[in-house]
Design a protein that fits this description.
Blueprint (H helix, E strand, L loop, with lengths): L1 H21 L22 H12 L8 H11 L8 H11 L5 H9 L6 H14 L4 H11 L3 H11 L5 H11 L4 H15 L7 H13 L32
Helix pairs in contact: 2-4, 4-6, 6-8, 7-8, 7-9, 8-10, 9-10, 9-11
Protein name: HEAT repeat protein
Pfam families: HEAT_2
InterPro entries: ARM-like, ARM-type_fold, PBS_lyase_HEAT
Length: 244
């Protein structure tokens, strides 16, 4: 009996102490482990993104010394930035500046370690309409290890109606993958404004015509679309079929 009373008293005392430690008369906590603002020198990814966006807000479309300085500030962040989301934000911000170094940095981003960053750089290159991007996009379309990045590069090439861009689409149209061929067809439609249906061989002939400067076999006089004399082929070395 005495033992039970002793345990009861101890329990009540503990509860009283706990209540006294947790609450002040005003109802608030009696102690605050982080009572003041947290002070840290660590720059979180969120903080770094905010800094980048602040710099990007300075873009005014000129190539003035001030704009060049802002671009240089952004570019120097790229080599040592471990977070791909922050690197992507830096590149998106650089694309807003009309400074040669900014365009060069975006093209360099096509070789980033992260495939999402490379994909985004394909889009940025397409939006910039920089003719110097064609060679880099052609390399990505042919060599990138990620299929979606290759497709993004092909889509970007569709925005350049030049012989160099159409030359880059020839191996795309000759690719064995129907999905890649389809991307090439869409890019050719965008480049030329011509709808030849889903006939891959017709677009391939059109691309070669632009590169060689000569009409493809079977072409009608005056540059009219070629007249097919035999079933079209998706790729010259493959049997006739139409994946689209």
């Amino acid at each position: 009996m005495k033992r039970s009373r002793t345990l009861t008293l101890i329990s009540c005392a503990c509860l009283g102490l706990a209540a006294g430690c947790q609450f002040l008369p005003g109802g608030g906590p009696s102690w605050r482990p982080f009572g003041g603002p947290q002070l840290t020198s660590y720059q979180t990814p969120g903080k770094r993104v905010e800094e980048v966006r602040t710099i990007a807000a300075q873009a005014d479309g000129t190539n003035s010394p001030g704009q060049q300085g802002a671009v240089a500030d952004l570019v120097k962040r790229l080599p040592n930035e471990p977070d791909p989301l922050v690197r992507e934000e830096v590149l998106v911000s650089l694309a807003k500046f009309n400074v040669p170094l900014a365009r060069q940095a975006v093209l360099a981003g096509l070789s980033d370690d992260d495939h999402y960053v490379r994909n985004k750089c394909c889009q940025l290159a397409a939006e910039a309409k920089d003719p110097q991007a064609v060679t880099a996009l052609a390399r990505v379309a042919a060599e990138d290890s990620e299929f979606d990045v290759r497709v993004a590069a092909v889509n970007a090439l569709g925005g350049f109606n030049t012989p160099a861009a159409q030359r880059a689409l020839i191996p795309v149209l000759e690719d064995r993958d129907p999905a890649m061929q389809f991307a090439g067809v869409k890019a050719m439609r965008l480049q030329t404004g011509r709808d030849l249906g889903g006939d891959v061989s017709a677009y391939l002939a059109l691309a070669k015509q632009s590169v060689d400067g000569a009409a493809p076999a079977g072409a009608a006089p005056g540059g009219a679309p070629p007249v097919a004399t035999e079933p079209p082929t998706a790729v010259a070395s493959k049997p006739w079929w139409r994946p689209f």
